[in-house]
UniProtKB/TrEMBL annotation:
<dbReference type="Pfam" id="PF03466">
    <property type="entry name" value="LysR_substrate"/>
</dbReference>
<keyword id="KW-0238">DNA-binding</keyword>
<dbReference type="InterPro" id="IPR000847">
    <property type="entry name" value="LysR_HTH_N"/>
</dbReference>
<dbReference type="GO" id="GO:0003700">
    <property type="term" value="F:DNA-binding transcription factor activity"/>
</dbReference>
<comment type="similarity">
    <text>Belongs to the LysR transcriptional regulatory family.</text>
</comment>
<feature type="domain" description="HTH lysR-type">
    <location>
        <begin position="2"/>
        <end position="59"/>
    </location>
</feature>
<protein>
    <submittedName>
        <fullName>Regulatory protein, LysR:LysR, substrate-binding</fullName>
    </submittedName>
</protein>
<dbReference type="InterPro" id="IPR036390">
    <property type="entry name" value="WH_DNA-bd_sf"/>
</dbReference>
<keyword id="KW-0805">Transcription regulation</keyword>
<dbReference type="InterPro" id="IPR005119">
    <property type="entry name" value="LysR_subst-bd"/>
</dbReference>
<keyword id="KW-0804">Transcription</keyword>
<dbReference type="Pfam" id="PF00126">
    <property type="entry name" value="HTH_1"/>
</dbReference>
<dbReference type="InterPro" id="IPR036388">
    <property type="entry name" value="WH-like_DNA-bd_sf"/>
</dbReference>
<dbReference type="GO" id="GO:0000976">
    <property type="term" value="F:transcription cis-regulatory region binding"/>
</dbReference>
Length: 290
């Protein structure tokens, strides 16, 4: 029967080039590595290494079995990690509700770290508008929510403000707005503005960010950006979504008369009050507050 210690010794010897280097790598004695490899060869009935040279080299059969041994070790490690996660009551799945106006850049780093710390926890991201998002958290069809702050948070939800998003006015480099030091309100009112459904449904943004008498409504902010790049209108968007576009020059930022100072919106991380947080959920909350 295959032995994981023997497989670890075999893989270490193959990768480090000698039994002594393998022993140092896995914290064993050289003799235990040598014996482990010898016993594995006896169990398999093949020579894994050619020992006629100064340093042992993999035989043809050894090369093929080395690849299989790595797969077996990885699977064994996954089983151990999964079993440990079960003992610690790590969540199988987390549903995270995200307001369409919240850029992924706000929380993607936390998901990346969580994926490393809890590799067996599945993440499901769902796009929900403000009231829908709060309702999903109350009804526990979602575990966490990222929302643009608007009205008061319902009493049965806890929240923490994690960051602020800066909003800017942008246009195509070909637009007449691109070369203007400041664009007056009259011009903004008469030129087509690109909006999206989530902005028009937001209780605060629909009043502060809707300026023009002529609008096109896109499905989301990514589509807004594409329409602006095609010089089909100007838009009001989170700057964090535009950094790359601004850097390469496919979009230009301009200063509007109605808002010469910078405008920010707070981003809240929300969850249901008095509901238990598992290790993975707690990890994300801690990352966002850190």
């Amino acid at each position: 029967m295959l032995n994981l210690e023997q497989l670890n010794a075999f893989v270490a010897a193959a990768e480090k080039g000698s039994f002594s280097a393998a022993a140092r790598h896995i914290g064993k004695s050289q003799s235990s590595v040598s014996i482990g490899v010898n016993n594995l060869e006896l169990d398999l009935g093949v020579n894994l290494f050619d020992r006629s040279t100064k340093y042992p080299t993999l035989t043809q059969q050894g090369e093929r079995l080395y690849q299989q041994a790595k797969v077996i070790i990885r699977q064994a490690n996954r089983m151990e990690n999964y079993a440990q996660g079960t003992i610690e009551e790590v969540e199988d799945e987390l549903v995270i509700a995200v307001d369409p106006l919240v850029p992924m850049s706000v929380f993607d780093f936390a998901l990346e770290k969580m994926a490393q710390a809890f590799p067996f926890t599945r993440i499901k991201l769902v796009k929900l508008f403000g009231d829908e998002l709060n309702r999903a958290l109350v009804e526990q069809t979602a575990n966490l929510g990222f929302n643009i702050a608007s009205d008061a948070i319902p009493e049965n939800l806890d929240f923490v403000t994690i960051t602020q998003v800066e909003w800017v006015c942008v246009c195509s480099p070909d637009s007449k707005f691109a070369d203007m030091e400041m664009v007056d309100n009259e011009m903004l009112i008469t030129e087509r503005q690109i909006t999206c459904t989530s902005m028009l449904q937001h209780k605060l943004l629909k009043n502060s960010a809707l300026v023009s008498q002529e609008t096109w409504e896109a499905s989301d902010q990514d589509d807004m950006i594409r329409l602006v790049e095609q010089d089909l209108g100007w838009a009001f968007l989170p700057k964090s979504m535009l950094d790359e576009k601004l850097a390469i020059g496919t979009i230009s930022q301009f200063t509007p008369e109605f808002n010469r100072a910078k405008m920010y919106s707070a981003i809240d991380l929300i969850w249901k009050s008095n509901s238990p947080k598992g290790p993975a959920m707690s990890f994300i909350v801690d990352q966002m507050q850190g």
